[in-house]
Amino acid sequence: MKALTAYSEKTDVSEAIEEIKNKLGTAGLKAVVFFSSSSYPAEETAKLVKNEFPGATVIGCTTAGEIISGKMLKNSIVAMGLSSEMISDISIEVVEDPANTKKIEKAFESFGKYFGKPMSDLEFDKYVGIIIADGLSNSEEKVMDRIGDLTNVTFIGGSAGDDVKFEKTWVFADGKAYTNAAVLAVLKPANGFDIIKTQSFTALDKTMTATKVNEETREVIEFNGKPAAEEYAAQLGVTVEKLPELFMSHPIGVITDDDIFVRSPQQIVDGSVVRFYCNIIEGMELNILKAGDIVSSTKDAVEDKKNELKNISGLINFHCILRTLELEATGKTAEYGAVFEDIPAIGFSTYGEEYIGHINQTSTMLVFR
Q: Which of 17, 36, 72, 73 has the most CB atoms in a 10 Å sphere around its CB?
């Protein structure tokens, strides 16, 4: 059994969701995951999707672009239907004000009651978590850190977008829309699952230590004991004024077991401070990275997983908006979409990706076997 996927580009939200319902059908669906452009009214969208799939658990969010098998889209809604043959169990919790870690703990207590055992005892090879967070809440690091303390179950996901307006993002759960919130789902896939994490960078032999930071604002004040922007620019051999032009092609990353976890710079503040899209901890050593080809690296990662698993029955792609912007700038969006042409897949362009922690310029993908 494979996941069912559908999309609509109709501008009227009622017509769009009606089209999706007609394509997916409703029989036997245990869960529906959907991603919606912020061009649709969030609260009405959430309510209508649940009304059309009343017997399913429904989660989703607003986006900065949508992905469906074979295509990258804008101003659309994409959806995946999962039957009981694909997931044998699912439970969801909404965490409002997610920076308050006590609320995450309460959500995990509810998961424990539902599954009949604490989340700390839940089998990490049988269960997987999805997290969809408000992309403007600046809370993802706290949420992921606390999740890591409470369970060995892997949580993977992304931060909601609003089509690069950076005004308000929404997450959806069973007919309701929330802002300043995170939706957590714990699934038991019937046939197993796997994860793909791919980023298109190599590490240069240029390292910097964050010697002074403001974690709350995601700002680095000093690298290597020097003003952050000045040292970053010097490492790349450019002026501070030219540095922002290299942010997308030369972000920085933490190297762990030969894997790269990307931290993307956002802007220079007050001429010397570098603000990032995710947190950097004081004392952290980071490598400057060099961009490669997104399409080829993604294709390699997906093909490797296909060869390993022999069968992929569904895939959810949490894909960084910075990767989307680069694909658009280089005219490669069609090539990227084609990577997933023969896989039942949906996804969206995120304001950050979740896997172990909060990261950038990466695609994190949940793969159903």
A: 36
